[in-house]
Amino acid sequence: PVRVWTTIDTSLQRAAEAAEAGSTSQALASGTRAQVQLQQMREQLQQQSSSQFAEELRQMVLKKYTTGLR
């Protein structure tokens, strides 16, 4: 995650620098790159959260089921 943030930060910095220099196309490209990177990170976090939730739910059901058999 730290490396991803560094990459996103770099893209945002480049976008800001290009905008200040008047290079609209470069600013747009760098900004779009940062947007795509943020979206990818968001999707990864959602997938990890979903997997973690499913595993915790599975453990709770398993525990309840095995406890109920005693």
Descriptive keywords:
91% helix, 0% strand, 70 residues, mainly alpha
Write structural notes for this entry:
This protein has helices at 2-20, 24-68. The longest helix has 45 residues, at 24-68. The model has no long low-confidence stretch (mean pLDDT 90). It is mainly alpha-helical and 70 residues long. Helix 1 runs antiparallel to helix 2. It contains two helices and no strands.
Provide a compact summary of the structure:
The chain is mostly helical. It has 2 helices and no strands. The relative contact order is 0.09.
What's the total helix number?
2
Taken from the alpha-carbon principal axes, the silhouette is rod-shaped
Separation, N- and C-terminal Cα atoms: 44 Å
How many strands, what sense, and barrel or not for the largest sheet? none
Question: Over all CA atoms, what is the radius of gyration?
Answer: 21 Å
The percentage of residues in β strands lies in: under 5%
Report low-confidence residues grouped into runs of 5 or more: none
Report helical residue fraction: over 70%
Number of strands: 0
Order of helices and strands: HH
Integer average pLDDT? 90
* Helix and strand composition category: mainly alpha
Question: Strands, helices and their partners?
Answer:
Blueprint: H1 2-20, H2 24-68
